[in-house]
Amino acid sequence: MKKKNTSVKPLNFTSGWEYAPAPESADHIHLEKQYELFIDGKFVKPGKGKYFDTINPATEKKIASVAEADEQDVAKAVSAARKAYDKVWGRMPAPERAKYIFRIARMIQERSREFAVIETMDGGKPIRESRDIDIPLAANHFFYYAGWADKLNYAFPNQQPAPLGVAGQIIPWNFPLLMAAWKIAPALATGNTVVLKPAETTPLTALKLAELIRDSGLPDGVVNIVTGAGRTGAAIVGHPGIDKIAFTGSTDVGKLIQKSIAGTDKKLTLELGGKAAHIIFEDAPINQAVEGIVNGIFFNQGHVCCAGSRLFVQESVADMVIQKLKDRMETLIVGDPMDKNTDIGAINSKEQLQTILKYIEIGKNEGGEIYQSSCALPGKGYFCKPTLFLNSSQSHRIVQEEIFGPVLTIQTFRTIEEVIEKANNIPYGLSAGVWTDKGSKIFNLTSRLRAGVIWANTYNKFDPASPFGGYKESGFGREGGLHGLMPYLKF
Ligand code: NAP
Ligand code: MG
Questions:
Q1: What is the band of 9 on the pLDDT scale with cuts at 50, 70, 90?
Q2: What is the pLDDT of residues 253-303, one digit of tens each?
Q3: In this structure, which of 54, 70, 191, 275 has its CB flanked by the most CB atoms within 10 Å?
Q4: Residue 229, ligand 1, Cβ within 6 A
């Protein structure tokens, strides 16, 4: 094979021109000072009258007070969901159910600007991402599952699929509205009712969705949204009136949930952590691959369960890929998430920033060679520079453990056998990426990598029609596509 020229001159970025600020306006959104619990179609105060603050991680300023639901509040939500299931939703003809889900999809589309701005304010992700990815995908998810509602007998012929009853759903902070859509849309399409808890740091788009659901005319109690921290989630998991738990979050909490429902007849799906291998072969289109690497790990500040956080580059092109990656990192704009030019926004919370910084220290102590882009970080807010660890090895903690931030470990490989072995040598199995010119290599890898989703010559692409989920400690069950209906049905 012809050897590629790996001597790449570093680009010179010192000429110093900058983009003018292009802030998205927040004039068109309306936020309450205080948010209540959404139970039985109404906003109600929490029994104990407790509230917590949700802040903007880019400014550290408080946005609103949010109700904290305790066991009694959760019990009210579960009984509203049960009543709605028994009296209305479980009996409604499927084509009627579908109309409501379509209406929710349409209303999200109509209010997409508002949702995008609030998602960015509450969670810290760049407005470009919430505008172009999170909100359109959330609407698409409702559209997609609306289409299935009256076709379940065709999806599962001769099996007479029936709903389970009340679903308890718990979601994380990295894709707040999108994760709510992943949970609520298939549950409604299959005739279940819902009690959903968003993450403590990002409750606002779920509460906006509650307003939208109320305005959509969806019968009272079909969707209930209760806010709070881990304790509220545990109250949902422990409530005897829940038929199914759908959880997306960390592997540690997933294990706790699995233990706590052992011995009950609650059904469970777990979408947990990941540590994806992103594999670049020497015959790959290198410039596109570098763009894919950047998208894979720096997209959403690396707050992505399927982030391509372990890079494997074939030795013959490693110098070239690493140099191009460093050059590209220098051009990434880190800062105000509301600015339309920003590539990397704020880390979701102070705690998460501390976790990431702790791992960067661990990486240095393990002997890793660190590279960070030279960008300046804003004085206020939680920000982290895009970071590489150049000479990582399999045994390093930063290679084995999920960091959930913009930190990429780099290893080189020579043969396909070596990279498959290294890629699979990890407790997780959520996703992977492969870049090569050869279709045969792609098929070889997709059959041998233990990962639920494998992207070829692209990365972080989502579609509601495509199932998503993991192996090993990344959980079980699938969301999206026809597969995503099954966890909400009995046969
Ligand atoms: P987390 O700490 O596990 O929290 C997830 C949700 O569970 C939050 O709503 C949380 O509440 C709640 N919770 C905490 N303790 C609980 C308990 N004992 N019982 C019931 N619920 C409880 O995870 P995270 O840090 O928010 O999210 C990051 C993790 O999610 C990463 O590991 C990531 O890989 C994973 N994730 C996976 C997928 C996937 O599809 N596989 C997608 C996205 C994210 P509070 O946050 O309010 O305390
Ligand atoms: Mg917040």
A1: low
A2: 999 999 999 999 999 999 999 999 999 999 999 999 999 999 999 999 999
A3: 275
A4: yes
pTM over 0.85: yes
**Which of 55, 71, 247, 253 for a ligand 1 pocket mutation test, highest count of atoms within 8 Å of Cβ?**
253
Q: In CATH, what number is assigned to the domain containing residue 39?
A: 3.40.605.10
306 is catalytic: no
Residue pair 453/468 in contact (Cβ under 8 Å)? The answer is yes
137 with 285, same domain: the answer is no
For residue 244, is it within any domain? yes
CATH code of 356's domain: 3.40.309.10
Q: Is the dihedral of CA 53, 59, 60, 61 positive or negative?
A: negative
Cα dist from 351 to 78, 172, 177, 355, 446, whole Å: 31, 14, 21, 6, 36
Confirm whether 3 is domain-assigned: no
Which of 226, 250, 472 to mutate to test ligand 1, by most ligand atoms within 8 A of the CB atom? Answer: 250
Let me know whether 287 and 262 are in one domain: no
What is the atom index within ligand 1 of the atom nearest the CA of 228?
A: 47
pLDDT band at 16 (very low <50, low <70, confident <90, very high): low
Distance, in Å, from the CA atom of 185 to the CA atom of 175, rounded to the nearest integer, reads: 15
What ligand 1 atom has the least distance to the C-alpha of 253?
3
Pair (268, 317) in one structural domain: no
Q: Do 228 and 88 share a structural domain?
A: yes
Do 248 and 286 fall within a single domain?
A: no
- Judgement on whether residues 129 and 59 belong to the same structural domain of the protein: yes
- pLDDT bin (cut points 50, 70, 90) of residue 18 is confident
Are residues 215 and 88 part of one domain? yes
Q: Is 110 a catalytic residue?
A: no
With respect to residue 463, please indicate whether it lies within any of the assigned structural domains.
no
What letter would DSSP give residue 25?
P
- Only one residue has tokens 């400690």, namely 473
- For ligand 1, say whether the CB of 114 is within 6 Å of any of its atoms: no
Q: How far is the CA of 202 from the centre of ligand 2 (A)?
A: 5
Pocket test for ligand 1, best of 177, 248, 270, 401 (most atoms within 8 A of CB): 248
| Amino acid code (one letter) for 286 | I
Cα(64) to centroid of ligand 2, in Å?
A: 9
The average pLDDT across 133-159 equals: 97
Distance CA 420, CA 407 (A): 22
| Segment 469-481, tens digit of pLDDT | 999 999 999 999 9
One-letter amino acid at 64 equals A
> Is any ligand 1 atom within 6 A of the Cβ of residue 310?
no
Domain of 383?
277-456
Q: Is residue 27 part of a domain?
A: no
Q: From the CA atom positions of the chain, what is the Rg in Å? A: 23
Ligand 1 within 6 A of 161 CB?
A: no
Q: Which atom of ligand 1 lies nearest, measured to the CA of 305? A: 34
Query: How much is the pLDDT for 19?
Result: 86
Mean pLDDT of 84-110: 98
Strands 310-314 and 431-435: unpaired
Assess whether pLDDT exceeds 50 at residue 3.
no
Give percent above pLDDT 90 in the chain: 96
* pLDDT score recorded for residue 13: 52
Total domain count, the chain:
2
Instruction: Look at ligand 1, atom 15, and give the residue with the nearest C-alpha.
Output: 230
Examine the domain organization and report whether 151 and 214 are in the same domain.
yes
